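User: Is it possible to get a 3D structure for a protein together with its bound compound? The compound here is NAP. I've pasted both below.
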Amino acid sequence: MQRRVFVIGATGTIGRAAVRALLRHGHEVVCLVRPQAGVGGALAPEDCARLLPGATLRVGDVGDAASLARDGFRGEQFDVLVSCLASRTGAPKDAWAVDHRAQVLALDAARQAGVKQVVLLSAICVQKPQLAFQHAKLAFEKHLVDSGLVYSIVRPTAFFKSLSGQVDRLKRGQAFLVFGDGRLTACKPISDDDLAEYLAGCIDDPSRHNRVLPIGGPGAALTPRQQGEQLFALLGRPPRFKQVPVALLDAIITVLGVLGRVLPSLADKAELARIGRYYATESMLVWDSGSGCYDAAATPSVGQDTLLDFQGRLLRGEAALERGDHAVF
Ligand SMILES: NC(=O)c1ccc[n+]([C@@H]2O[C@H](COP(=O)([O-])OP(=O)(O)OC[C@H]3O[C@@H](n4cnc5c(N)ncnc54)[C@H](OP(=O)(O)O)[C@@H]3O)[C@@H](O)[C@H]2O)c1
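Assistant: Yes, that's possible. Here is the predicted structure of the complex:
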């Protein structure tokens, strides 16, 4: 059945893929975008229109209730809200403004427009919250669950873009950087399109309604060391790793944390270093609190795209990488 779907966060990596998937599923898609969208605000509305063919674009501010009503929903009726909205920096102020406040405002406006169902892109890491953006996301997840609307909260593992930042280093002949021995963590990489297909499928699949849904891509979980080995195999070179001690991140966090009490911009950098440390030491797999371990087998897999195929296409120049502000290496 065709629905009227209102999308926020449509200009992000997963948002763009989600719009494509929603259109493939036959839905009517309306997106609220910023006047200057994309990484660094590089996209004007006409650029967004080229990125989101087939969708209706409206320009406004998701962080402003009046703009949401006037520019976004415009007094019209909608069936579903799909949110791929997320702070681009993860810095505490931005995270609470975007991952919580703007989401709450959009949910309120959506309800007034008749929306009965919400599909929310969240993140698997909120299961073990330590960082400001994780607390902000969890607070909105709770708000959504308490709203009484039909919800699907999708918590994916790592995206291809976040695991491919070292492709250029390796092309230049440099070593693959790993924290510790490169086996501290693991994840089940998921492609933008496989995740987007899963998000779009939430609308009509009752087994995904009123559920929190951790999700990974196909195949076995991969450690950073295995990801590096795969990349060297693609390049036809023997693997070469450089080990970075996690203690280095601890030292950076301590120094920036102390200086950040005087200079707020350094406090944000300290939080970014904490985000880096989190991903260096925590797996993007379902956490089993009973055993105190991450559980790859308990992390569901969907889709067909593999990180290996994607990185092969990156190396051949057939795919591009847009990494944004979250990059560690
Ligand atoms: N990277 C990973 O490996 C990974 C893994 C699991 C889960 N996740 C989660 O997946 C989610 C989305 O990731 P993504 O890579 O698709 O994000 P992204 O590319 O950074 O896109 C973020 C979207 O939110 C919008 N946005 C951010 N701040 C805004 C603001 N102040 N006002 C209006 N719009 C704003 C952006 O719009 P503009 O274009 O206007 O900036 C963009 O559309 C995040 O919640 C992340 O935590 C990521």
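Residues 166 and 172 are 10 Å apart (CA to CA). DSSP finds eleven helices and eleven strands in the chain.
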